[in-house]
Amino acid sequence: NAGVTQTPKFRILKIGQSMTLQCAQDMNHNYMYWYRQDPGMGLKLIYYSVGAGITDKGEVPNGYNVSRSTTEDFPLRLELAAPSQTSVYFCASSYELYGYTFGSGTRLTVV
Amino acid sequence: AQTVTQSQPEMSVQEAETVTLSCTYDTSENNYYLFWYKQPPSRQMILVIRQEAYKQQNATENRFSVNFQKAAKSFSLKISDSQLGDTAMYFCAFMIHQAGTALIFGKGTTLSVSS
């Protein structure tokens, strides 16, 4: 089915470890986004991309990195995981001014 | 900077009743879009309804409708004939009229529908 695929769905990391959250879309959308959702805080933008090779910071980029080598993929890298990065992470994509398509989210716990 | 405020952290309603969720926003832009998203316990984000700021007519989608008051910067969601499946977190979101710009979300309202 067309859409946004996120992997993994769940992950537990130890403090200081690194990992990459994968995001792929098959709708040929130019725009892709990473959000984190903390309880009672809504979704906050981490990074976004307007096309392959172009990325920019959102509201809460510290501790994360992204790359966009292809239109389809937009991985989010966590270096030196900290407890403050415990959250649910959502990837999304959009075409022009139409609504977003969201992935199903990754629940990350840092212990 | 744009902000979105949802002043009701939690609401409850009985089946078949009508409930209204509130949302206010702040922006100096004139062209923008407003959205309501539903997040059930499955965690999936589902678009409920969308409103273009240049349209005076309020958007409707089956049992869901909005009351868009541009001058007051208010965008409430009315759910009619509430169903148990409407139980979810509801997020109000804002986006300016520019391709590739990010959605800005409110903190959400948890709606519980009981029988």
Structural features, described:
The complex is a heterodimer of chains A (111) and B (115). Chain A has a single domain, classed as Immunoglobulin-like. Chain A has no helices and 11 strands. In chain A, strands 2, 4, 5, 6, 9, 10 and 11 form a 7-stranded mixed sheet that branches. The mean pLDDT of chain A is 93. Chain A starts with a strand and ends with a strand. Chain A has 111 residues and is mostly beta strands. Helices cover 0% and strands 52% of the residues of chain B. In chain B, the strands form 3 sheets. In chain B, strands 2, 5, 6, 10, 11 and 12 form a 6-stranded mixed sheet that branches. Chain B has strands at residues 3-5, 10-14, 19-21, 24-26, 32-39, 46-52, 60-61, 64-69, 74-79, 88-96, 104-105, 109-114. Chain B has one domain (3-110): Immunoglobulins (Immunoglobulin-like, Sandwich), CATH 2.60.40. The relative contact order of chain B is 0.34. Chain B is mainly β and 115 residues long. The interface between A and B is medium-sized, with 25 and 23 residues.
What is the second-level CATH architecture of chain A? Sandwich
For the report, how would you describe the main beta sheet of chain A? 7 strands, mixed
Kindly report the average pLDDT value of chain A: 93
Q: Are there runs of chain A of 5+ residues with pLDDT below 50, and where? A: none
The percentage of residues in β strands of chain A lies in over 45%
* Structural classification of chain A: mainly beta
What attributes does this structure have?
heterodimer; A: 111 residues; mainly beta; Immunoglobulin-like; seven-stranded mixed β-sheet; four-stranded antiparallel β-sheet; 11 strands; 0% helix; globular; B: 115 residues; six-stranded mixed β-sheet
Write the layout of secondary structure elements.
The complex is a heterodimer of chains A (111) and B (115).
Chain A: E1 4-7, E2 10-13, E3 19-25, E4 31-37, E5 43-51, E6 54-57, E7 64-66, E8 76-78, E9 87-94, E10 101-102, E11 106-110
Parallel strand pairs in A: 2-11
Antiparallel strand pairs in A: 1-3, 3-8, 4-5, 4-9, 5-6, 7-8, 9-10, 9-11
Chain B: E1 3-5, E2 10-14, E3 19-21, E4 24-26, E5 32-39, E6 46-52, E7 60-61, E8 64-69, E9 74-79, E10 88-96, E11 104-105, E12 109-114
Parallel strand pairs in B: 2-12
Antiparallel strand pairs in B: 1-4, 3-9, 5-6, 5-10, 7-8, 8-9, 10-11, 10-12
